[in-house]
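Internal tracking record. Fields below are filled automatically when a chain is submitted to the structure queue. Please do not edit lines marked as system-generated. If the sequence contains nonstandard residues, flag them in the REMARKS field before resubmitting.
Queue: standard
Priority: normal
Entity type: single polypeptide chain
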Amino acid sequence: MGLFGNRKSRAERGLEIANKIASGKGFYGQMTKAFVGAEDFGRIQGAVGAMNSGINVQALVAAGAPIVPATVVSIGDTGQLVNFDPLVDLVVQLPDGNRVALRTLVSKLRVPRVGEPVHLIADPRQPGAYLYAGVAGA
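SYSTEM-GENERATED OUTPUT FOLLOWS
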């Protein structure tokens, strides 16, 4: 809470602006959409989506959502960074043998390697989809 009532923190305000930019709404969103090309605007939307995914995972872990173990099959760099953390294409294998492809944000300090165990959480918004929750044991 700020000095003058229920003001938003800088982080909350920044997240709100990023979401407006990605949706193309509001002043920031319309100006961004007007000045960058469709391809770059798509990249912005993907990066903001990955950032929101990370925030959702943190909330689900805190709420006690069940963690699904998986093993990294492959990892590819997308060339994008969000807050200096890489956005990667990750393919993991579940214990039942099914493979899942994810585009997710990973910590630059703990990038998963091929063959390494990782944690996933079932995405409550999309049945059958998963969210990356980090390297197992980290």
